[in-house]
Each structure stands twice: as structure tokens, then as C-alpha cells.
Automatic annotation (TrEMBL):
Molecular function terms, GO-annotated: carbohydrate binding; peptide-N4-(N-acetyl-beta-glucosaminyl)asparagine amidase activity
Domain of life: Bacteria
Keywords, comma-separated and alphabetical: Calcium, Hydrolase, Signal
Protein species of origin: Spirosoma arboris
SUPFAM superfamilies: Six-hairpin glycosidases
Glycosyl hydrolase family domain residues: 264-739
Name by which UniProt lists this protein: Glycoside hydrolase family 92 protein
Signal peptide residue numbers: 1-19
Cofactor(s) annotated in UniProt: Ca(2+)
Pfam families, alphabetized: Glyco_hydro_92, Glyco_hydro_92N
Residue intervals of the Glycosyl hydrolase family 92 N-terminal domain: 31-258
Length: 763
């Protein structure tokens, strides 16, 4: 009985915590829960997110800080105390942060140490939205509110009656500087704390103005308060300003930062104008509603709408703007590649290994002008650093594999993006394809082996070699596609066409799976298809075997035909979630997330297998894709703090949901095709950038009616298992007749299957 009552209590608590008003057509941001995914830890990711209080693609984000300085898990749902309110540029806890400092209001005894100044708080007195955050700090009897612009923010601290109200500025360790200017009610300074990807002169400069004169003003370093100066530079610098406040008195702070200079931070502060916090809040809300309103869903449950718009919110955060507007309104940026202030756009905080799959295709569909600016930023990154970034935060980071910048660049250009120097980008792609870079994750590790043998060998001390081979082969396909569009020499086109088939060199007919291969041509032995890592990246052979995005028919042929292929796909869900973690020496969180999902070897919490379900369409059994896609959406995505099934990863896992809910997915970027799944809602209206609308209707859709019985495109019967980007981009109406039972006669003919290089099925 006690257990039953306890479970009932948890259900009621969950409902109270996550209850959101049903959004009107003009207030979709009310459906977003920024706390989704925050109930995470290093050993188990339910998203590994934090509540990003920001504008879409904003240069600066803000967040409440519950973790210690330097902890990548800077906000966790289970935490009890808040240590400060931090400006953050963190893309994920694994990459950690840079350009970070915090403000913390306190009362009573002056405490600068982050643990001593921390305050208990409750989610019951916390309001978290994309455009506004508020929380009651119980130990200090203070309510803190903040609202952002792209490069600035306004704080409002509501104090009790006391002579000992303070705001502590923490510029963090690893080198920082602060200066208080009491006459101007102002603090300036910089922070240098970072986790790589920056030159030696990297600084994030900040400026803070208060609307109330300081009763006291002191700077501090390490844990010592300085009494004889208002300026300090040390390993760990900070400042504290004090006020005498009446009950309910509000003190405002206006904050901005810059990667260029304090003067530029002052310019960035002008984004706030003279607006009060409530106006900044309203403008930020309007900005979010504008972008979220580009896609309107009808039907479905409240929880499904909350999940959809929360995923859409996550899809509109990264890559973040890393550029600023100078005094003449020209676009400039501090270059994390050469340390100079340079002209033009730059974006950062994205890893292409994750986001080439659906996040960037989503931008190409819904935000092509923005993606053109991102492409211009890639031109600048290459010119300034000599290499294309594969994981940028803010500059080159040495993590993950592949040279998937080729996919990012090719997909944008092939879908019509223009206005930037594509020839320089193609030059950069060619350089990547032939050379190893200055670090493992730049250029192509093992390029000479790959280009001569057709694979990266297992036994030449290059880790994750099979995964590299498979991704290089796909990337070569995207280069082949781009080379054709740019009318490059035929020999060059043929070279990449041939290399795109290198995936074949790793297929082991004995097991029907991809397998590492030694330099002498023999397969690795022993071979355990359940072994994570080793020849693969954050996965095993059951996950990576499907990484032939561009030639699924070729993979079908290797497996012995469509029936064998479908049987192999089915096996992913029926084989128990066994694993071999010996390569890592412990069970990494990605393994645990697969294990507890109760979907066999299907590991949606990580990227390599996220496209796999759609492959049923290539083998004539699309209804199986329709079934499993709905299962994944229902079981692995929730509008709760534990609502993801693994790392959210800068919009990739969220964009998967957005696409899948719309009823199609870009299995192979750098083609014109989306592979059809089945829509989640009764109606979706997407407003395209060109003014056209994509309308998706499924009036009989329901939990039971998850299968496509028939489909029409612009009023005409449509039987193919794919949709053309070109057709959708011109505006289209898709009508789905949904059924409770599969239609086993639809989408079963080879000429209805999506594109494969081996067959050349069009577009």
C-alpha cells in the first residue's frame, strides 16, 4: 500500500511539475519545456541538456548553475542548490564550456565561495522557458529573473529588507580579470576558462551595469577579498557589489559580453536598449514564437505537442552565432582559429558527426538563408585555420571521426544554397579527402590507407577504423554528388564514385555484418558483433552495418537480397541488448541507454543507428518502418526531465523527432530525397522561407492508426517510399489515409524505393 501511494505521489508530482497551458496558435513557446533532458549524469544520459535561456542561435546562452565550476553537468534536475546564474557557450557536458562567468545574488554574511554562497531552491518555485527564467533562492530570500537577447541579458533581483544585499560576480578560474567602476555602477572584465579549441589570446570580455548605486564594492581573487583596490587579475578573479535594500526592492543588472573587446561588449549591450526586463522578456518570447510558429501541428495529445515543440526548440539553438556587429554594423568575428578579429560570419558549437544526419538537412528545408550564412562561416573557418572543422567549440576540437563536413557542404549546395564561395569549400573538401589533419578529428585519420587499400585497416593502430571507413565512403559519395554539380573533371568525379563503394570492403558474408579488416586483407579475429568501440565509434557492428546511407540497395545485395535484409533489420529489435564493453573498460552511458530501452540492439540514444528504421522502405516493407518509428516516438521521447533516451547532441536527436513527426526523414543528405515514415499528427503546416506552405494532412491518424493505407501528393495518388526536396520546397500538400492495419501492397515495387547508388533510383 505504501508503495502504491508513493507511486501515485510521483505521478501527481510529475503532472504538477510538467503541466503546461495548452498553447494558442500565437503562443507555441508555452509548449516548450527547457528542462527536458536535464535529469542526466555521466553514467546515464536522459538528454544531457541544460535549460538554455537564449534566443534562437544566440551567441550567448544563460543558465542556472547547480554544478561546481568546471563541471560539464552544470545544471542537473536532481540538484538541490543553485550556485549562480551562468553565461554559457557549452554545447554538451562532454565538450564542456567556454566564455563563462556567473552572477549570484546573496544576503547576510558576504560569501564568495561558490559552495558557501549556494542556495536551496525548488522546481516548484522555478519558471523555465526559452525566453525567461525565474527562481526563488530560499537561503537568501531573493527572487532572480533573467531575459536574454542574442549577446546580452537583463537580470532583476528582488531583495528582502536588509543592509546586506550583494551580487557576486564570479569570472571563474584559469585566468580572469575584473574591475569595478562605482561612478558608473559598472563592472568590466574578462574570463579565459575554456576546454580547448581556442588560441592563446582567447578572452570573453564582459560588461555589467546596475541601476542602483553601490553601498559597497570589492574585488576578490581565489578566496581572498581585496580591500585596497577595485581591480584584480589572477587565476580566479571576481567582484562583489553591495546594496541596502527595502522589502521587495528590485535591482536590475544589464549584462553583455564579447569575444573581441570590452568596447565591443558595450556595443553588444545596446541590444537591450532602454527596455525594462519585461519588455526584453516579451521580445524574446515573440522571437521564439516566430520561429516555432513556422511549423504548426494539430491533433495529437498535449504531451506529443510538448515533445514536438521542445524538440523544435532544441533544433533552433545550434550552431550558435559566433559573430558580432561592430560600430559600423559590419559583421565581424573573433577567430578561434587564428586569434584575430576577422570580417564575416562564423558559427560554432556543433559536431558534424552528429548533426549531418538530420539537423543540417532540417536547416536546408526550413532555414536555407541561415544555412547559407553558416556555409560562409565555414569558408572563413577554412581560410583562417587551414582545415574544415568537424567538431567546433569554438575552434577545432579533437573528438569523433569522419569528415562529415563534406555532407554539410554538399547537402546545402545541392538543395539550392548560394551566396558564398563554394569553390573554396570544395577545395577544403578535397584537402580533407587526401590528408590527415593536425589532430585525429580533422582531415581523415588513415587517409593514405583508405585511398590505397579502400579501407582503414584494423591492425595499424588507428582506432574506430571500420567506422571511419564507412563514414569516409559516404562522405566520398557526397563529394561525388557535389563534384557533378560543380562540373568538375570526369576523372575526379569517377574517383569519388569509386571510393563511395569502399563500404563493400568491410562486409563479412559469414556474419552478414560489417567487420574490421586487417592490412593484409584478412578480417579481424576474433570478432564479436556486440563489442562496442574498437573498430566502431560509440556502437557495435549491429549499429554501424547500416551506415551505407547512399547505397542501401548495394548493402541489400551483399546480404543476399531483400528478404535477408529485412530479416537482419528485424533482428536488431529481437536480439537481446547484450554487449561487450571491454574496449572501454567499463559500461559507457551509451551502452546502458541501449540496454534499458527494451528495444533489443536498437540504440537510438546515439546517432549511428538513428536512420536504420527507415531502411525498411528500401526493401519493400515500409509498414515495418511505420510501426517502429511510432514506437520510438512513443517510448523514447517524453516531455519530462528524463525525456530523451541518450545525448540530445546539439539538435540532432531533436531534429530526428521533428522530421519523423512530419512523416519523412533525410536518410541520405546530399540527395534530393526524404524517405517516408508516417506523420504523428492529424495536420502539420510548415511555412517555408520562400512563402510557400508544406501541408501534411492525416485526419484519421491516431495511436491505433499508425500505418499508411494510401497517400496523395498535391491531390494525386502517390505510391513511392520517398519525397523530393525540390517538390516539397515548392510548397506541397501531402494527404495520408492512415489505417490500423498495414497496407502490404503499397511501396513494394523496386521503382518505388528510395535512391541507391547501385540502382540510380532518381533524385
Amino acid at each position: 500500500m505504501k508503495k502504491t501511494l508513493y507511486l501515485l505521489f510521483l505521478v501527481v508530482l510529475s503532472i504538477n511539475v510538467y503541466a503546461q497551458p495548452v498553447a494558442t496558435l500565437s503562443d507555441l513557446v508555452a509548449m516548450v519545456n527547457p528542462l527536458i533532458g536535464t535529469d542526466s549524469k555521466p553514467s546515464l544520459s536522459n538528454g544531457n541538456t541544460y535549460p538554455a535561456i537564449a534566443l534562437p542561435w544566440g551567441m550567448n546562452f544563460w543558465m542556472p548553475q547547480t554544478g561546481k565550476m568546471g563541471d560539464g553537468w552544470a545544471y542537473t534536475y536532481a540538484a538541490d542548490k543553485i550556485r549562480g546564474f551562468k553565461q554559457t557557450h557549452q554545447p554538451s557536458p562532454w565538450m564542456n564550456d567556454y566564455g563563462q562567468f556567473s552572477l549570484m545574488p546573496i544576503t547576510g554574511k558576504l560569501r564568495i565561495d561558490e559552495t558557501e554562497r549556494a542556495s536551496w531552491y525548488s522546481h516548484k518555485s522555478e519558471i523555465a522557458t526559452p525566453y525567461y527564467y525565474s527562481v526563488y533562492l530560499a537561503d537568501h530570500d531573493i527572487t532572480t529573473e533573467l531575459a536574454p537577447t542574442e549577446r546580452a541579458a537583463t537580470f532583476r533581483f528582488t531583495f528582502p529588507k536588509t543592509d546586506h544585499s550583494f551580487v557576486v560576480l564570479d569570472a571563474f578560474d584559469k585566468g580572469s580579470y575584473v574591475k569595478i567602476i562605482p561612478k558608473e555602477r559598472k563592472i568590466i572584465g574578462y574570463t579565459t576558462r575554456n576546454n580547448g579549441g581556442v588560441p592563446a589570446n582567447f578572452k570573453n570580455y564582459f560588461v555589467i551595469y546596475f541601476d542602483k548605486p553601490f553601498a559597497t564594492a570589492q574585488v576578490w581573487h581565489e578566496k581572498t577579498i581585496t580591500t585596497d583596490s577595485l581591480e584584480t587579475k589572477s587565476d580566479h578573479a571576481g567582484a562583489v557589489v553591495g546594496f541596502k535594500t527595502t522589502k521587495g526592492e528590485q535591482v536590475l543588472a544589464r549584462v553583455a559580453s564579447s569575444f573581441i573587446s570590452v568596447e565591443q561588449a558595450e556595443l553588444n549591450l545596446k541590444e537591450l536598449g532602454n527596455d525594462p526586463l519585461d519588455t526584453i522578456k516579451q521580445k524574446a518570447k515573440l522571437a521564439w514564437n516566430k520561429e516555432l510558429g513556422r511549423i504548426r501541428v494539430e491533433g495529437g495529445s498535449v504531451a506529443q505537442k510538448q515533445t514536438f515543440y521542445s524538440c523544435l526548440y532544441r533544433s533552433l539553438l545550434f550552431p550558435r552565432k559566433f559573430y558580432e556587429l561592430d560600430a559600423t554594423k559590419k559583421v565581424v568575428h573573433y577567430s578561434p582559429y587564428n586569434g584575430q578579429v576577422m570580417p564575416g560570419y562564423l558559427f560554432t558549437d556543433t559536431g558534424f558527426w552528429d548533426t549531418f544526419r538530420s539537423l543540417f538537412p532540417f536547416l536546408n528545408l526550413m532555414y536555407p538563408s541561415l544555412n547559407a550564412q553558416i556555409q560562409e562561416g565555414l569558408v572563413n573557418a577554412y581560410k583562417e585555420g587551414g582545415w574544415l572543422p568537424e567538431w567546433a567549440s569554438p575552434g577545432l576540437r579533437n573528438t569523433m571521426i569522419g569528415s562529415n563536413s563534406a555532407s554539410i557542404i554538399a547537402d546545402a549546395y545541392l538543395k539550392g544554397s548560394r551566396g558564398y564561395d563554394i569553390n573554396t569549400l570544395y577545395e577544403a573538401i578535397l584537402k580533407n579527402s587526401e590528408q590527415e589533419g593536425p589532430m585525429d578529428a580533422v582531415g581523415r585519420r588513415g587517409a593514405s590507407y583508405y585511398n590505397t587499400l579502400g579501407y582503414v585497416p584494423y591492425d595499424v593502430k588507428i582506432n574506430e577504423n571500420a567506422a571511419r571507413t564507412l563514414e569516409y565512403a559516404y562522405d566520398d559519395f557526397t563529394i561525388y554528388q557535389l563534384a557533378k554539380a560543380l562540373k568538375r573533371p570526369q576523372a575526379e568525379i569517377d574517383r569519388f564514385a569509386k571510393r563511395s563503394q569502399n563500404y563493400r570492403n568491410l562486409f563479412d558474408k559469414q556474419t552478414g555484418l560489417m567487420r574490421g579488416r586487417n592490412k593484409d586483407g584478412s578480417f579481424q579475429s576474433p570478432f564479436n558483433p556486440f563489442k562496442w568501440g574498437d573498430a566502431f565509434t560509440e556502437g557495435n557492428s549491429w549499429h554501424y552495418t547500416w551506415s551505407v546511407f547512399h547505397d542501401v540497395q548495394g548493402l541489400i545485395n551483399l546480404m543476399g537480397g531483400r528478404q535477408q535484409f529485412v530479416t537482419k533489420l528485424d533482428s536488431v529489435f529481437t536480439i537481446p541488448p547484450v554487449y561487450d564493453e571491454t574496449y572501454y573498460g567499463s559500461v559507457i552511458h551509451e551502452i546502458r541507454e541501449m540496454q534499458i530501452a527494451n528495444m533489443g540492439q536498437y540504440a537510438h540514444g546515439n546517432q549511428p543507428i538513428q536512420h536504420m528504421i527507415y531502411l525498411y522502405n528500401y526493401a519493400g516493407e515500409p509498414w515495418k518502418a511505420q510501426y517502429w518509428l511510432r514506437e520510438v516516438m512513443n517510448r523514447l521521447y517524453l516531455p519530462t526531465a528524463d525525456g530523451y533516451c541518450g545525448d540530445e547532441d546539439n539538435g540532432q536527436t531533436s531534429a530526428w523527432y521533428v522530421f519523423t513527426a512530419m512523416g519523412f526523414y533525410p536518410v541520405c543528405p546530399a540527395t534530393d530525397q526524404y524517405v517516408i515514415g508516417a506523420p504523428l499528427f492529424k495536420k502539420i503546416t510548415a511555412k517555408l522561407e520562400n512563402g510557400k506552405e508544406l501541408v501534411i494532412k492525416a485526419p484519421t491518424n491516431s495511436e491505433q492508426h499508425r500505418y499508411i493505407n494510401a497517400m496523395r501528393l498535391n491531390g494525386k495518388p502517390y505510391t513511392k517510399n520517398w519525397l523530393s526536396h525540390q517538390a516539397l520546397a515548392q510548397g506541397a500538400v501531402l494527404d495520408f489515409d492512415m489505417s490500423a492495419t498495414p497496407n502490404r501492397q503499397r511501396g513494394i515495387k523496386p521503382d518505388e524505393f528510395p535512391y541507391s547508388f547501385s540502382t540510380g533510383n532518381t533524385k
